[in-house]
Amino acid sequence: MKQKRYTSQLGTGLGMIEETNALLNVWTPGMSSTQLFDEALNSGSFPGISARRLRNLISGCFAPRLLVSNGKPAEYLKIMRPNLSSREVEQLLFVYTCRANQILEDFVREVYWPAYAAGHESISNSEAQIFVTKAVQAGLTTTPWSEKTIKNVAGYLTGTCADFGMLERGQKVNRKIIPFRTEPNVAIVLAYDLHFSGLGDNTVVAHSDWALLGMDRSDVVTELRRLSLKGVFLVQTAGEVIRIGWQCKNPEELSSAISQG
After folding, report:
1. Where are the domains of the chain?
2. What ranges make up the beta strands (E) of the chain?
3. Residues sharing a CB contact under 8 Å with residue 18, sequence separation 6 or more, in sequence order
4. Secondary structure of 4-50 in the HEC alphabet?
5. Cα-Cα-Cα-Cα dihedral sign, residues 24, 67, 232, 105
6. CA angle in degrees (0–180, nearest 5) for 81-82-88
7. For a pLDDT cut of 90, what percent of the chain falls above it?
8. Are 154 and 164 in contact (CB under 8 A)?
9. Which of 34, 113, 133, 257 has its CA at a distance of 20 to 30 angstroms from the CA of residue 225?
10. pLDDT, tens digit, for every residue of 3-48?
């Protein structure tokens, strides 16, 4: 698969959690980003946001994250959300944001989790700048970036991680690393998300999305085995081969099962 080019698109809204939830309230299946803008503008739910800003948030953040694949991520999340905690929704939005922004995905893998695993107390914007500078030098950006853009994008990366509760929030150039734990329902919903997208069982547990949550394949198998006690799936392993019995046939069934604990 060809490497996605890095962009500065994160700067449009960083994590954009509150606005994403508000837009999900307005969005309905089949609604395009243009239709969503019109509906959101007329809803009165965004009184402090200009029309231009709202359009940018939808086109630059909401659409790339949730309206890809004919809006399947938005539809899935909208069905799941009523039975998830705000932290669980936050973690799922984090995964979707990484999927839409290769630079964030790679930063999390190459900088955040290695620092976390090494027991570092914080991550600075300077460290993020080094990561971005190397990416520019390696030709990973759409165009060569100026020093100012590099500095800005470094701030977007640490700021977005802060929005998602992985780094200390606030206007800081050095952010404390926040203890992170994948919420159980997030593992269930993500596993089903990958399953519903047509992936086989072994591909599901080895998928790169899990690394965004600090989990490797063995962590995933262990977690899914533990969660199988909830009855949402059955897990059988034989060596490196895994077989999962998916008990829910669609998102609605899964949401209902989660609501029943």
Report:
1. 100-176, 184-259
2. 122-124, 174-176, 233-238, 241-246
3. none
4. CCECCHHHHCCCCHHHHHHHHHHCCCCCCHHHHHHHHHHHCCCCCCC
5. negative
6. 45
7. 90
8. no
9. 113
10. 689 999 999 999 999 999 999 999 999 999 999 999 999 998 898 8
- In the chain, % helix, strand, coil (3-state, to 5) comes to 60, 10, 30
Determine contact, residues 221/205, Cβ cutoff 8 Å.
yes
Residue 96 above 80 pLDDT?
yes
The SS3 assignment for 154 reads helix
pLDDT digits (tens, 9 = 90+) for 136-179: 999 999 899 999 999 999 999 999 999 999 999 988 889 999 99
The span from the CA of 42 to the CA of 19, in Å, is 15
Tens of pLDDT, residue by residue over 207-240, are 999 999 999 999 999 999 999 988 899 999 888 8
pLDDT in the model for residue 1: 44
Q: At what angle do helices 184-196 and 217-227 cross, to 10 degrees?
A: 100
Q: Is the pLDDT of residue 2 over 70?
A: no
Identify the three-state secondary structure at position 233. strand
Candidates 13, 165, 37, 146; CA nearest to 89 is: 165
Burial class (CB in 10 A: 0-12, 13-18, 19+), 204: buried
CA angle 19, 21, 23 (to 5 degrees): 70
